[in-house]
Amino acid sequence: MPSLTISSAAKPPPFARGLPVTLEYDANTTVADVKAQIAAKFPKFYPARQKLSLKNERGSLGDEKNLVDVVGEKGSELQVKDLGPQVSWQTVFLVEYGGPLLIHPLIYHLPKIFYGQNVQHSTLQKFVYVFVLLHFFKRELETIFVHRFSHGTMPLRNIFKNSAHYHILSGLALAYDIYRPKFSATSSYITGTIRDNETFLWICTGLWAFAQLSNLHTHLTLRALRPANSRVRAVPYGYGFSLISCPNYFFESLGWVVISAMTGSVAAAVFAVVSTGQMVLWALKKHKNYKKEFGKVYPRGRYAMIPFVV
Questions:
Q1: Taking each helix axis from N to C terminus, what angle separates 89-109 and 123-145, rounded to the nearest 10 degrees?
Q2: Nearest 10 degrees: CA dihedral of 15, 20, 23, 27?
């Protein structure tokens, strides 16, 4: 049975000072099996912390790859890099979306603490409050029951960076701006204006609900393409996908544009612009990967995220 040397790509972590090690493998051994063997020797070096690559190469080897296809039948040397403490993507999403679900009720129901006075909430504020809570509650449910992640974990340190976007921009900044006295029922900014018109508010509600339900539909479509516990990718078709590769991002941004337009809030506009800009970057990357992976099979003429624009 051939053997394989596993060395450390850098200074080994304290719990893996025994590197390098030699492992045996056969025709059925995968990269994931090698990671499991390393973890068996160094229990704190669990598979999600490991990045395996060929010696002196940076590219990461996919867990599903057969080892014989990577190093051949005579054996070779792989390097393992410690990726640091990991946290599941599901946990990251739950923490990200949980922030606004806690922050908005605090500022909405306890205005005296934040503004030094009570606020008689306008219909506009009530609508936006419900929108925000429903949106992030929907995202939490999707995280638990709908999303299937290509990668199981991410570095723990990234949870703070990722959460800041939601906790600060759509949490503190948006809530503090929207629920302040300027938008209250007695404010001249609201009374006698279109923002106090129920027909206008219900039209906005319809547009916002359309965006949310369409976003959910595309998430369900993407879920159906990937069997559980797999990284299988397929070309998405159907509602939302005829013109763009990432309609989930498009509908997500549309929902925030509606809130921004109906309120005139600077904080809402900033979040809409920042989040849309980030989603455009993600969409361009996914669009490029789709075309690279599926080649001529991928429908021509699709845009990345915004129909006829980008």
A1: 160
A2: 110
Looking at residue 16, the DSSP 8-state letter turns out to be: G
Residues 6+ apart with CB under 8 A from 29: 66, 67, 68
Spatial neighbors of 69 by CB under 8 A, at least 6 apart, are none
pLDDT band at 148 (very low <50, low <70, confident <90, very high): confident
User: What torsion do the CA atoms of 123, 172, 218, 152 make, to the nearest 10 degrees?
Assistant: -150
Closest residue by Cα to residue 258 from 297, 206, 222: 206
pLDDT digits (tens, 9 = 90+) for 192-243: 999 999 999 999 999 999 999 999 999 999 999 887 766 778 899 999 999 9
CB atoms within 10 A of CB 158: 13
Whether 108 shows a pLDDT value over 80: the answer reads yes
Residues 211 and 262: their CA atoms lie apart, in Å, by 15
Tell me whether the omega of the peptide bond preceding residue 2 falls within 30 degrees of 0, making it cis. Answer: no
Residue 74's pLDDT band, with cuts at 50, 70 and 90, is low
Within 8 A by CB and 6+ apart from 272, the residues are: 253, 256, 257, 259, 260
Instruction: Give dist(CA 89, CA 148) in Å, integer.
Output: 10
Domain with CATH 3.10.20.90 in the chain: 3-83
Amino acid at 290: Y
Look at residue 42 and tell me whether its pLDDT is greater than 70. yes
Given a contact cutoff of 8 angstroms between Cβ atoms, the answer to whether 260 and 269 are in contact is yes
Give pLDDT, residue 182.
97
DSSP-derived 3-state class of residue 198 = helix
Q: Whole-prediction pTM value?
A: 0.87
Find out if CATH 1.25.40.850 is the number for domain 3-83: no
* Distance, first Cα to last Cα, the chain: 53
Going by C-alpha positions, the residue among 306, 142, 302 that lies closest to residue 238 is 302
